# Entry
Amino acid sequence: MGSHRKYAHSWKYQTRRKKKGTFFVLFTIIFSLIIFTVRFIIVLPYFYIRDVRIRGLKRLSPSQLTAKINIPPHTSIFTLNLDKIYKSIESQPMVKRVIIKK
# Structure
């Protein structure tokens, strides 16, 4: 009777171990799909910055300010560093206030 208990315990242990293994595999697959999807969306041309609108300029020309912003081609709206752009524009001596919107 003692060996029967040992066998039952072993069977439960193996079942629990299989469940953990299955969970790990499913978790890995789902996590990989999420990462792949996010990376795919980030590089879609649909999300590239096509247009930069600058309003309210009195002392600087839009081309001068756009040159200071320096956004590389094929930059996604998700990878754009707004803080860097904000600081770049704000550091200009003739700029009074900066508001950036996506």
Q: What stands out?
A: The chain has two domains: 1-42, 49-90. Helices lie at 2-42, 62-69, 82-90. The chain has a mean pLDDT of 83. The radius of gyration is 28 Å.
